[in-house]
Design brief:
Layout: H1 6-22, E1 31-36, E2 48-51, E3 67-72, E4 75-76, E5 97-99, E6 103-121, E7 127-133, E8 138-142, E9 158-164, E10 170-177, E11 182-191, H2 198-222
Antiparallel strand pairs: 1-9, 2-11, 3-6, 4-5, 5-11, 6-9, 6-10, 6-11, 7-8, 7-10
Helix pairs in contact: 1-2
One calcium ion binds at residues 52-54, 94-96, 185.
């Protein structure tokens, strides 16, 4: 058996990674976890902040790179807790997102997300979140499905709600409410690492093969017989 040179090991690893990238799960399930009364600024391990809504004048522009947000009837920074339709978020004195009845907000991710979370208050039965991703992934969670059954609407209840996509990649998240209101802040997520397209992998693998052939030929020339 030929010794495994570093180049051959790298080539074998590249093939394994390429196969894993092509085998994305088509029907993974969303797993929900809820951390009640958490600090609004504490994020799950591996996630980064996407939006904090603290710039109430320009919330659709103050996002992590690679994300866009459409606020369709939703509001940011309007007298939270005193406008007649927003509840307050405990331990969170900053501006946050309010989705009133019949409104929505949609977050788009260029690279996609492996998981997503937000800090939420005053949980209602009529709040919902829909996750849309690659390979037909499309799942919606309503009311208590997001909050492990709690829909008591208390302004003293606050929690970080975390969604794991079970290996799927989600590019679009639609937050909606059919009543007043869905209140949330500090959107966060684990961004999918950039994976080359299959055609790029083919070029890379062909390139590795060419380099290997050159090295073998050079070794054959240099090795005394
Ligand atoms: Ca905020
Ligand atoms: Ca609410």
């Amino acid at each position: 058996m030929r010794p495994r040179t570093p180049l051959r090991t790298f080539f074998a690893t590249a093939v394994v990674v390429a196969v894993a990238a092509l085998a994305a799960p088509a029907s993974a399930a969303v797993t929900v976890s809820v951390t009640s009364m958490s600090d609004p600024n504490t994020l799950p391990v591996g996630q980064v902040l996407i939006a904090d809504f603290n710039d109430a004048q320009n919330p659709e522009a103050t996002l992590l790179d690679g994300f866009t947000l459409d606020l369709m009837g939703s509001t940011v920074g309007w007298n939270e807790g005193a406008n007649g339709y927003s509840g307050t978020l405990p331990n969170d004195p900053t501006h946050y997102l309010t989705i009133p009845g019949s409104a929505s907000a949609t977050l788009f991710s260029v690279q996609g997300l492996r998981s997503f979370s937000f800090y939420m208050g005053s949980a209602d039965t009529y709040n919902s979140v829909r996750f849309i991703g690659a390979n037909g992934f499309d799942q919606t969670l309503n009311g208590g499905q997001m909050t492990q059954g709690y829909t008591g609407q208390s302004w003293n209840w606050g929690a970080r709600v975390n969604f794991d996509f079970g290996g799927a990649t989600v590019n679009q998240i639609v937050l909606t409410s059919s009543g007043n209101s869905f209140e949330l802040d500090n959107l966060a997520g684990a961004v999918q690492q950039a994976v080359p397209e299959p055609s790029t992998w083919a070029m890379l693998i062909l390139g590795f093969g060419a380099i290997g052939a050159v090295l073998r030929r050079r070794r054959a020339v240099l090795t005394p017989v």
